[in-house]
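## tool: complex_structure
## caller: assistant
## args:
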Amino acid sequence: MFLSETVTMSDKETSSKPTNKSALPVLRVRNLNVFAGDHHILNDINLDIPRNKVTVLLGPSGCGKTTLLKCMNKLTDLYRELKVSGNILIENDDILNTTTNIPSIRQKMGLLSQRPYPLPVSIYKNVAYGLKLKGVRDKKLIEFSVEKHLRETGLWEEVKNRLNSPATSLSIGQQQRLCLARGLAVKPTIILADEPTSALDPISSKIIENLFKELKKHYTIILVTHVLRQAMRLADHVIFMCDGKIIEQGQPDELFKNPQTEELRAYLVDGN
Amino acid sequence: MQLKRVLLDKINGFWMVTSLATILCLPLIIGTGLYLKAAPLFDQQSFMSLVFSSNWAPSKGEFGFWPFIAGSLYVTLLSFLFTAPVCLLAAIYLTQFSSKQLIRVMHPVIDVLAGLPSVIYGVWGILIIVPFVSDYVAPIFGTTSSGYSTLAGGIVLAVMCIPYILNMLIEVFNTVPSGLKEAALSMGATRWESVKHVVIRGNFPGIISAYGLGIAKAFGETIAVMMVVGNVVKVSGNPLHAAYPLPALIANNYGEMLSIPMYDAALMFAAFLLLIIILAFNLIFRYLIHKTKRQ
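## result:
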């Protein structure tokens, strides 16, 4: 109750004061709770995701990071056993209690999974898929967009002569970049990356990490990882989770150098 | 000790290869046997005339199999038209939309349907489907029918094929990783679009394979169809008319009318034709699977 009032208050504040949009969090989570039967998967989650930064959700396996990510693009709707309550505000629209249609909410978030899932069509059609769903029929615009996003993910030079080949013919690292390009083509505000390098070799992982550093100029990235070194390399903002709760959050320098909780301290010791 | 292990390894390998070779040779042995038994018929009539002639007068030595082939194909086609969309939609619902409780209920139901002897389907066809066709369907089209018809055969056969095709489609759709569906959804696809673009389009080879096996089963099904299809030697495009499928011809007459000259050879030829047509179906479906896999 208190926190939902806080949300309303801060909404009023933002509407009454002329503020710099880039300084406002792009996504806010308030009082988020997720249950699967009696199991409390996410427990009173409250967080702000800063715009055009890489926010790293860090924590041991099974702590609820992926569930939190799935709440953000409402993929939790697919799992009947999950009961979700609270508020997730994207640009002041509470996606858990909204009338906005779900596909358009999901298009605001490009999803990059643990392992690449290219659609069972060609490389070209994979990138064009989101545009077609948006109703874009102009072939030239689609071609332009496909090339632009394949270039953006550094894949264009590698695939430009075989755009009609099945996407599954690419290497796993290339497939992951294709999935990123495919997600960017729908012009998301946020990229949700769920351990996107866990199935990749070190070289492909490095390429993805470098891409994130570039992409954060235009997008907000929420990266789930349990690799401490990756978090240290990429994070602008860190949220450390354990057992479905947020234990600590803040700037990576402060958090990693001066952990306030025993859980994070133990995690940092083990991770290093 | 080492020698014993190597010897056992060799013996087991030999038995496995022998078993496999026997299975592989079976269709060839059956086909050759049927061909040799049917061979006397070829001295009287050419292969083409046997297949495409509609004159069926065994007592005069005229054996035209076209009414039986057409009857078999027609009943199979009708059953396929009824069963294919129903199974596809049911499999999609069960694997993509339904609750786990419903799946738990449906599995035993499907297994029971698959386990029912075909004579029960035949009796059910006589008691329910034949009167339904005669009393309700035929009047809609302003005609009369005894109910024993291609349509009744098609409906009974469709119900019989449902558990086979449905089970295979469920297996196929269950192999789609949830991550793939989530990928489509997160790009803004609706649930139906994700099913259409990922579950169906990505599984064309599996769907074709399920349908192919279902059709092969339907084509060879004998008892239930024989009980409701009317068994009249006539080529008719009207599904309310009776038909006489190939398996019914063999089952009805083998051992009964063998005093007529060449009749046993003709029945062996009918069995040989069944084998060839099922082989042709298989080849067509293999080709379609290969083609869709390449895309």
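## assistant note: Chain A has two domains: 2-108+188-271, 115-187. The beta strands of chain A are 25-36, 39-50, 54-58, 82-90, 93-94, 109-112, 190-194, 220-225, 237-242, 245-250. Handing back to user.
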